[in-house]
Each structure stands twice: as structure tokens, then as C-alpha cells.
Specification:
The chain has helices spanning 11-23, 34-44, 60-69, 86-90, 106-125; strands at residues 3-7, 27-31, 48-52, 78-82, 98-101. It has a single domain (3-125), classed as Response regulator (Rossmann fold), CATH 3.40.50.2300. It is built from 5 helices and 5 strands; from the N terminus they run βαβαβαβαβα. α3 links the parallel β3 (48-52) and β4.
Length: 126
């Protein structure tokens, strides 16, 4: 089963994403900030990350930068979900594979997850 890491300090959003992705057959693990996300990343080895931008302790930009610096996870697709800070994510294609707006459209997120996982699988085989 493919594991997805959701990093968001808003528990309701993390829960909604978890339920929707689990309904699609994914296993979902969550973290409430970037620092906790790094701890979960090391333990769970997800295939994809969905992160918020504005979070306490370590924001989404710092988290994505940290993920990209790790040799074990620098290849992971990262989706940034953000409201006001989406423009920052769009300027950082080196960190984020996709930037989706908040409030989010769950069908769009699921489609993007599937697209990135299928393209990442192909890249891993090259």
C-alpha cells in the first residue's frame, strides 16, 4: 500500500485529506508541523508528501528544503497546499512538484497525487 504523508497544523484539513486518500486506497500518516513531518518521514518512508505552508515550528518551505537535502527522500514528490502563500511555492519548482490552492478541491488533489505517483514511479525506473 502506498503511503502519503500529510503535514498540516489544521487537524480538520489533515483528517479530511486522510479520509479521502484512504478511500482511494492509500495509507496516510500525518504530522502537525514540518519538524514532526521529518520525524514521520524517517519512520514511515512515504511515497509522496502533501504539506501546508503556514505552520508553527517549521513551515512548509523550511520542511520542503529539509526534505530535499536528505539523500533518502530528495526525490519524493511534494505537493504544497496553500492559500495566501501559494505564489511563493509556485516560484520554488525546485522544492514543490505541485502547488494547489486552499480551500482545496479534493478531486483535484487526488488527481494530482495519482499523476505524481505514476510519473515518479517512471522516473525511479529510469
Amino acid at each position: 500500500m502506498t503511503t502519503i504523508l500529510v503535514v498540516d497544523d489544521e487537524y480538520l484539513i489533515a483528517d479530511i485529506l486522510s479520509f479521502a486518500l484512504e478511500d482511494e486506497g492509500f495509507m496516510v500518516v500525518t504530522a502537525s508541523n514540518g519538524q514532526k513531518g521529518l520525524e514521520v518521514l524517517d519512520r514511515e518512508r512515504p511515497a509522496l508528501i502533501i504539506t501546508d505552508f503556514m505552520m508553527p515550528v517549521m513551515d512548509g518551505l523550511e520542511f520542503a528544503t529539509a526534505v530535499r537535502s536528505l539523500s533518502s527522500s530528495h526525490h519524493l514528490p511534494i505537493i504544497l497546499m496553500s492559500g495566501a502563500q501559494a505564489h511563493i511555492g509556485m516560484q520554488r519548482s525546485d522544492l514543490f512538484d505541485a502547488v494547489l490552492p486552499k480551500p482545496f478541491n479534493i478531486d483535484l488533489i487526488i488527481a494530482e497525487v495519482r499523476k505524481l505517483l505514476s510519473s515518479n514511479r517512471g522516473a525511479a525506473c529510469d
